[in-house]
Amino acid sequence: MCCCHGDDCRCRPLGFLLGLPFAFVSLLLSIIGVVIWIVGITLSFLCPCCLCVTVLVEFGLALIKAPFSIMKWFTKQIPC
User: Where are the transmembrane segments (predicted)?
Assistant: First the structure.
């Protein structure tokens, strides 16, 4: 069900369908992000003084969140 209030439209089914291929690619990136995150967490336990490991973990988390960010961005690009 579409819920539109003025210029703010919350339902964009066409944008969702068009964004699915991009979401699939970003899902693959998020799987890579999980692997990077696990390696980074393991390395941070072995050497907690290393700053580059923290950057690696943050990069992994950003890749994990990629599918949601891409779907939100792509859906907002389609007018209601």
Answer: 14-37, 43-64
Residue 14 is encoded by which pair of tokens?
A: 């066409």
User: What is the number of H-type helices and E-type strands within the chain?
Assistant: 3, 2
**Main-chain dihedrals φ then ψ at residue 4, nearest 5 degrees:** -110, 130
Q: Phi/psi at 10 (nearest 5 deg)?
A: -100, -5
User: Structure pTM?
Assistant: 0.60
Interatomic CA distance for residues 76 and 70, integer angstroms: 10
